[in-house]
Amino acid sequence: KKRNLIAALLCSACLVAGSVNPVMADAARVVTLGADLTDAQKQTMMKYFNVSSDQVQIMTITNQDEHDYLDSYLDSSVIGSKALSSVKIEEADAGSGISVETHNISFCTSEMYSNALATAGVSDATVTVAGPFQLSGTAALVGAMKAYGAMTGDTVDQESADAATNELVVTGELGESIGKVEAAQLVALVKNKVLSGDLSSDAQIEKAIEDAAKELGIT
User: CA of 8: how far to CAs of 95, 105, 109, 121, 163, in Å?
Assistant: First the structure.
């Protein structure tokens, strides 16, 4: 798991430091709905998001979209054969960062989404992730990134999307061992250490992980 974490952090931190340029969203709201939701479930999602179809741009996320992003990091059986998770994203005030709220999401926490979306280049956005019933939530990141691209007109590039997806999955797996909150805190702290110290080697990042874990009291 430490090796996976090193790889994820090396990829995501390099992107945050270099090629990812966060863009400001214009005043807009976008909702992505899983293609396999029933009409009743879609209505439930819209009600939870507190918007109507004439107030937002609506996009559909397919199961193939989910596999395109996630197959490199999760077994196909985990991803499943239906796209059900849904996302609403809207502009936030400049400098306010990323705020995430979840509903019926079991594997991913708000902090995990915030960390991963920052790696993808998202900035100043309010995000709501929801499912019609308990879902892992890993596929919702796909919807969030696509929605942000639609809202800003600046599509998240594939390299950044891959790094964000990798980070989300690794953080979630780490959370099963040390706790979800602790895992999100650890990844955020290590990314900060990697960026501030301009670290690039496995050995440097491994030491940053160990130092961060010690600071947080994580074994």
Answer: 26, 22, 18, 16, 7
For the sheet containing 98-105, what is the strand order?
57-61, 29-34, 86-91, 125-135, 98-105
Backbone region of residue 121 per phi and psi (left: phi > 0; alpha: psi in -120 to 50; beta: other values): left
3-state SS of the chain: helix, strand, coil percent to 5?
A: 55, 15, 30
* CA 187 to chain CA centroid, nearest Å: 13
120 vs 141: CA distance, rounded Å: 10
- Residue 24 near residue 94, CB atoms below 8 Å: yes
pLDDT for 86-137, tens place per residue? 999 999 999 999 999 999 998 899 999 999 999 999 999 999 999 999 998 9
Which portions of the chain are predicted below pLDDT 50?
17-27
C-alpha to C-alpha distance for 16 and 131, rounded to whole angstroms = 29
Whole-model pTM: value is 0.83
What's the full length of the chain, in residues? 219
Report CA Rg, the chain.
17
Residue 219's pLDDT is 87
